[in-house]
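Exam revision sheet. Question 4 asks you to relate a sequence to its structure. Input first:
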Amino acid sequence: MPSLTRTEAVARADLIAVQEYRIDLDLTDTAASDGFDSTTTVLFSCHRPGGSTFVELKPSRLDEIRLNGVALDVAGLEGNRFPLTDLAGQNELVVRSRMRTSNTGEGLHRFVYPEDGSVYLYAQAFMDDAQRMFACFDRPDLKARISLAVTAPAGWQVAGNGVGAEVSRPRGRRLAATWRPECGWK
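Answer key, structure tokens:
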């Protein structure tokens, strides 16, 4: 799966601006499996309507992708790239997929503690790792607001280390948290 080249990165930064990622991760079956469901909504603008680019994701299964309400053929995914053509001035991309956890520290890492069988997960989004958890424009200077919702098994503790992040224990199965990171992010 190819990494973004410098030429592609410059062209993409000249074409689009990303306003927001709304990420919904369903971790309810990660205790028993090595995968999770990811739904991502990306709001972005295109400086030259009619232009084309691609979004990156590394799913085990791509269930649905919609651009501005129009369903696209999921068979269009090549490696880790899904082409987006005929972009409007303002765009909404919705991607529903099944993602894999890893045991190598890439993306969403899953570890089962051998003493008691407890499952632990942590996220790593360095270099090509974010696209292992959610669909994104994996480019360092295309930062955007991120809203993250997590559905976790009852009794799990979910924590984040961003500005405004907090530790939460879901009473049922749903936990929602929103981060608006600093460090130059919008």
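Marking note for examiners. The first strand starts at residue 16 and ends at 26.
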